[in-house]
């Protein structure tokens, strides 16, 4: 038997003995749900921590040169997913005044022959989308695409027949681009146009089986309320929204969690079938609290950090950041900007919170990943409420506890492996760690974070097996 025959026989025997897994469609760049149903992985089995930015109006507001500036900045700051609308309005136009569809009919995309940026007659709305998607791919960024924003469906501008044709167009156009994720919906309840949302989801799945799909819901709701059992929906997404505790008083909303976005994640975590979950839109940096009254205080970098660590420690597989000016790509020439943005997008991309988000991703990827679970039993004694709440998560060999106020708290040791543990403080503002010491891994121990207790004096206690 020659060497090639021996190798072939070995492969056959191995497949029979251990089973052969088909290589993911996009190889190592594929995004897949982990075997335990809690996280995302790349095609090579490595953990993928979703660090998203809401660049909602990227396709319609920025030129090719501006989009490159934005995407390169987000790459450098550690973001790996950009959430963006394909159609914010029906009909709509981009910065080059190219129309997206014919006669406000989403089933008829406005297309021209050719794809030459230097020829306006051979470069259309969808060519511009392609250009930016390809730019993102060159930078290693995934594009989470919203087919059509929810208000258009709620206002009856899209019916099932149109939705099916439009979704087939999208799936066929983008199914071979590795860096696509589908965000069905768009700031809408799943019950508002459920037939359209299911049509979009099912059509995308039928024509594009290799990209992940979810649903972006309305504020203070979760996609799982409508689509937990939908076969087209691969993972759950919540929009915890932009209201303070005292502003979350609507009698028409099912959930009243205020700023406690961790409660949405905790609820999703208990559902069956098991699906990964994420806060895809918490309060944006520099947006008025409650959104519409621009005289209200604005959310700050400490708030977006709090939402990030709270949700991830509660069991989310990643986190999406947003900034008031960046999400709408605000320029001072805009006649009717939303929610009173102050800085232009080109300035706002350097907001403090945007720079700090990468530290959350780095922290989570620095420990074993797929064995991590939320575990509030790490917090000894009575936990605090609202801003005084301690959120805790652990793997087999580490534990992380987040305090937003920097108050003293006690920890039940012995929850991770090892006779002894080493402890350190991780600073979410800088990503730097400070050693505390080593301790016997049993009993209850109180920890005192650096600084005086105050909102925004947030720290992560890191415990690791020695």
Automatic annotation (TrEMBL):
PROSITE patterns: PROKAR_LIPOPROTEIN
Key word Hydrolase present: yes
Gene3D superfamilies to which the protein is assigned, alphabetical: Glycosidases
GO molecular function: hydrolase activity
SUPFAM superfamilies according to UniProt: (Trans)glycosidases
Residue ranges of every copy of the Putative collagen-binding domain listed in the record: 373-464
Alphabetically ordered keywords of this record: Hydrolase
Domain Apiosidase-like catalytic: 34-370
Domain of life: Bacteria
InterPro entries: Apiosidase-like_cat_dom, Collagen-bd_put, GH
Protein name: Glycoside hydrolase
Natural source organism: Pedobacter ginsenosidimutans
């Amino acid at each position: 038997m020659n060497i090639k025959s021996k190798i072939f026989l070995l492969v056959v025997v191995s497949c029979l003995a251990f089973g052969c897994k088909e290589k993911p469609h996009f190889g190592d760049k594929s995004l897949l749900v982990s075997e335990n149903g809690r996280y995302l992985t790349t095609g090579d089995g490595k953990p993928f921590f979703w660090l998203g930015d809401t660049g909602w109006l990227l396709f319609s507001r920025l030129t090719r040169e501006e989009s490159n500036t934005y995407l390169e900045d987000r790459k450098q700051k550690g973001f790996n997913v950009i959430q963006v609308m394909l159609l914010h309005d029906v009909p709509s136009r981009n910065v080059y005044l190219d129309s997206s569809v014919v006669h406000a009919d989403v089933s008829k995309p406005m297309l021209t022959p050719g794809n030459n940026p230097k020829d306006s007659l051979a470069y259309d709305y969808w060519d511009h989308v392609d250009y930016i998607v390809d730019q993102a791919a060159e930078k290693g960024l995934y594009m989470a695409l919203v087919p059509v924003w929810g208000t258009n469906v709620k206002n009856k501008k899209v019916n099932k027949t149109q939705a099916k044709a439009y979704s087939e167009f999208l799936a066929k156009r983008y199914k071979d681009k590795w860096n696509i994720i589908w965000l069905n919906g768009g700031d809408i309840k799943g019950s508002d146009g459920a037939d359209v949302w299911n049509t979009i989801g099912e059509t995308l799945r039928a024509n594009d089986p290799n990209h992940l799909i979810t649903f972006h819901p309305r504020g203070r709701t979760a996609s799982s309320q409508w689509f937990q059992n939908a076969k087209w929906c691969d993972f759950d997404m919540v929009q915890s929204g932009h209201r303070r505790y005292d502003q979350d008083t609507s009698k028409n909303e099912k959930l009243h969690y205020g700023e406690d976005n961790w409660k949405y994640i905790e609820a999703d975590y208990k559902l069956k079938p098991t699906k990964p979950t994420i806060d895809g839109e918490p309060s944006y940096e520099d947006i008025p609290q409650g959104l519409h009254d621009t005289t209200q205080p604005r959310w700050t970098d400490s708030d977006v950090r709090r939402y990030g660590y709270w949700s991830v420690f509660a069991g989310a597989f990643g986190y999406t950041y947003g900034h008031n000016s960046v999400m709408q790509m605000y320029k001072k020439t805009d006649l009717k900007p939303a929610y009173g943005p102050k800085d232009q997008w080109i300035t706002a991309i350097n907001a403090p919170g945007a720079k700090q988000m990468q530290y959350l991703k780095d922290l989570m990827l620095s420990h074993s990943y797929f064995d991590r679970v939320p575990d509030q039993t790490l917090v000894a004694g009575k936990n605090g409420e609202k801003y005084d709440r301690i959120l805790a998560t652990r793997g087999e060999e580490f534990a992380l506890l987040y305090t937003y106020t920097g108050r003293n708290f006690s920890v039940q040791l012995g929850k991770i492996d090892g006779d002894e543990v080493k402890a350190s403080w991780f600073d979410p503002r800088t990503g730097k760690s400070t050693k505390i010491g080593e301790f016997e891994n049993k009993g209850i121990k109180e920890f005192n974070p650096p600084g005086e207790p105050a909102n925004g004096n947030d720290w992560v206690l890191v415990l690791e097996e020695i």
